[in-house]
Amino acid sequence: MPKQNAEQQIREKIRDMMERHNIKVVHIPWWETLWYRHVAPLISNIKYYVQEHVRGYSDLDCWNVAWYIARKSVPPLQKMRDGFMGTPVRRHVENRHGEIIELKNVVYGNEADILNEQQWRDVLDDMIFAFEWPLRQDNPDFDHENSQYVTDGCKRQKRGLILFSIYYNDLWD
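Above: the chain's sequence. Below: its structure in token form.
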């Protein structure tokens, strides 16, 4: 008997609190729960799959284009880094502060101006990092609190994107 009284008192307190705060309990029918939790997401996934294979991207990809480009760019850049047939002409130099300066009017044919294999791998590594950075930030284990890590990552991403723009036409093998 005392246990029922305690439970009844708790129910009355909850009911009073809900009335004071104008909280209503809504009972959702089972078919509505089934639709919104299982059927509708399945239909959306099928729609996105069809869009991806018909036009090359889905509406889902348009919500974060940077992430979409990063996701599509990393695998071919990694494959190129692991095995390439040649290296391009040097199109950049770094000043004493580590800033990249694009070389205009590059003359082809001079062997001294061609990047060696390690230099080209370093350039490709910077490009890969630039596109992996947005993907890393979506990871739940990403350390958003460490401002130095975030600042260094953003600087390196900017460097990789600058190199990507400079060597864009050389990304073929």
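Strands lie at 92-94, 100-102.
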